[in-house]
Amino acid sequence: MAELPRYDPYINGANVAPKSNEYFATINPYTSKPWAEVARCNAEDADAAIAAAYTAFTTGQWPALTATARGALLHRLGDLIADNADELAALEVRDNGKLISEMAAQCHYIPQWYYYFGGLADKIEGAVIPSDKPEIFNYTRHEPLGVVVAITPWNSPLMLLSFKLAPALAAGNTVVIKPSEFTSTSTLTLVKLFAEAGFPPGVVNVVTGFGAEVGAALVAHPKTAKIAFTGGSDSGARVYTAAAAGLKQCTLELGGKSPNIVFDDANLDDAVKGAISGIFAATGQTCIAGSRLLVQNRIYTEFVDQLVAFARTARMGDPMDRDTQVGPVTTPPQYEKILQYIQIAKDEGAEVLLGGGPAVDRPECGDSQYFIEPTIFGGVTNDMRIAQEEVFGPVLSIIRFDDDAEAVAIANDIEFGLAAGIWTQSINRAIKISNAIRAGTIWVNTYRAVSFLSPFGGYKKSGLGRENGIEAIREYLQTKSVWISTATDVPNPFVMR
Ligand code: NAD
User: Fold this and answer.
1) Whether residue 457 has its Cβ less than 6 Å from ligand 1
2) Cα separation of 393 and 334, whole Å?
3) pLDDT tens per residue, range 321-333
4) Is the CB of residue 183 below 6 angstroms from any atom belonging to ligand 1?
5) CA gap 220, 318 in Å, rounded
6) Does any ligand 1 atom lie closer than 6 A to the CB of residue 417?
7) Hey, how many other C-beta atoms are within 10 angstroms of the C-beta on 399?
8) pLDDT tens, 123-179?
9) Is 287 a catalytic residue?
10) Among residues 62, 136, 179, 277, which one has the fewest Cβ atoms lying within 10 Å of its Cβ?
11) To test the ligand 1 pocket, which listed residue (159, 235, 337, 418) has its Cβ within 8 A of the most ligand atoms?
12) Closest by CA position to 394, among listed 444, 343, 357
């Protein structure tokens, strides 16, 4: 058998062998076959990467650059990513099986993060404080934190990385990245562009491997100043606990179980498309999936019939084919988890309206062992596990409601608060319901819109802090207050000034 290409960690501007000398296979979910090998890094590699990032933060060219020069580097990087977007997108599809139409669109959009935060780099202004003390000049500076550890999941590896990397670098930090063990190759290809853009070695480093091994070592490292994490809520809680032990800052973007609410005055054709895009786009493997569909009783039958008929036409197939609408799920454990949840829903008494099982051994699914039928459950009540727990797959639960108050009560009766959709033609209703729902993003008559310009993050167990938009850069800065005496003598040293 031909040897598989190997992907090594990237530390201090070069690919190096992992200290363990061990590699693990990365699998193409459409062929179910390994296509590359990725280094299994351990605590020693974590140490080396953090040391490189710490040195780059404290000495050499990076801290000496002006903010304008940092911004120019980010701009150049954005151009290089645009030039390489198709290659990066194809790697993402090979690793995570998501549609090329989605991953290519993301990779062509990603440069905007580097342009936007590059532009912001030299607009981070401190303030002159109007001092209440005579003969004191007091001003503030916003300074970088130090070494940032960026930990990413498998569903949109480069986009979720860019949410972190662009503001962290614009603010002057250095970074060690730990991509998901299922999708490391696009990140290792992206970082090569940093040297080409002119970033000094050590400013951006990548170690690969497993969360509990190299991920935990990065979080616990005494020289790590901040962790920017996207992943599941259980892993997020572990990372937060470890960060707390070292008194480190943390941004957490976690799971969701977002309500997508269809009111009786909605344009039903649009709402059907909104429900489909909320759950079957990305095979449901998105934190913002509208996996709880709340439908008002008066239109329930008409709407659900239309929805099921539309979903039935979704084309499964090769994710590299631009006509495919639903691809395989990304990982074997995820495949098993989704099937378990389908069984849980059936056992709980939910009614299968569409799908409800694996979709292997079909010609359009190739050799993949990881296809699951787009699945819709009716007769779901909000107390069922299928309504409360994140499935992260193409599984939709439909819940009925009578009026606005009940819709809000059901939408909020959950531990997550990442996003919500509202379908109505009444502007009053849209505003009232948007205000009442406890979630970080609300979409009205649309779904899954995300931009570098707009803050993104979760309420409740969906996370801490915000990514994107101006406020994201503050997550990577700390404020210093500088006091300068203009007095000609030093007053009584035994009394506080
Ligand atoms: P995961 O939590 O299993 O892994 C995420 C990353 O964390 C991986 O790189 C993993 O290796 C690492 N990790 C795991 N345990 C760790 C530990 N103890 N210390 C350090 N690192 C550790 O998540 P996943 O299965 O890769 O991704 C799916 C999850 O991510 C879903 O729950 C989804 O909702 C969530 N997600 C959230 C957002 C968001 O922005 N809110 C976006 C995408 C995905």
Assistant:
1) no
2) 8
3) 999 999 999 989 9
4) no
5) 40
6) no
7) 22
8) 999 999 998 998 999 999 999 999 999 999 999 999 999 999 999 999 999 999 999
9) yes
10) 136
11) 235
12) 357
